[in-house]
Amino acid sequence: MNRRRVNQRRRLAPLLAGLAAAALLLSGCSSDPLADQYREGSNKGFIAGDGSVTEIALADRGEAIEFSGVTETGETVTSDASLGEVLVVNFWYASCAPCRAEASDLQSLNAQFENEGASFLGVNVRDQAPNAIAFNETYSVTYPSVLDVDTGAMQLAFSGSIPPNAVPTTLVLDAEGRVAARILGQVTSPSILETLIRDTIAETGTTE
Fold it and tell me: Where would I find the Thioredoxin domain in this sequence (predicted)?
């Protein structure tokens, strides 16, 4: 009897090991968005976020984000220039479908908050100037974007705080340059972003 049980265990061991390996492989792939996109053959070129919102209480915010970059029109922008007001930073690129879908809403909010305590800045993670300018013309975007494809400096600057883990990602920086909120993925509800901006402005007393 004991010998029979040992033989059964020996026969079952490879089968169980194979099943365990398959389960591990499936669980690993399912948690990897890039692997999912590869299997789908979608070739979207971005990790899609789910639109989730993260808000950070004043007491829990990290250090101010320091950055410098050159826009599609050749102008240099720095984090120092936006201190004292809220800055909305949107990571995007031209062929990203969710980026195109949210562009008009972001531009509307940019116009709404002009001279009202908040400004917008794009970070283009893939394109050179001609594509970025063409995108702006197509979607009537008036706020500048830093071209980050060559250096990745902007993405690196934000990586230690609430990182932009998907494209698009939109971050709301407070008047001290700290990340106050993040929308991971497409802004599907402009009213949510508007509320995040207003709440962050209200902290500084710059507007109602």
Answer: 58-206
